[in-house]
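Tutorial, part two.
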Amino acid sequence: MKERINVSVDGRGYTKKIEEDLNSKAYGLFGQGIGKDFLSYLESITTNNIYPAGVGIETLAHAEGARWLVAVIKQRTELGRKNG
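Running the prediction step on this input gives:
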């Protein structure tokens, strides 16, 4: 039976090898150059976006999902950087 980690950054369980592979790929894609610039763009339209009072729950739920996904990408990128 393969060893699973307790909790991944996305809330799922993976083997250590798969987890390291995902983090390495995230770093390869978003850790430098054009990918890093594009991740900054994604962050600017999600995490750094402020919604005015009165915005519908559907809009806010959509925004939170997008923020969560960008946060997962950022965390995996950082873990990939740290684990080289």
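The CA atoms of residues 30 and 37 lie 8 Å apart. In part three we will examine how such features are distributed along the chain.
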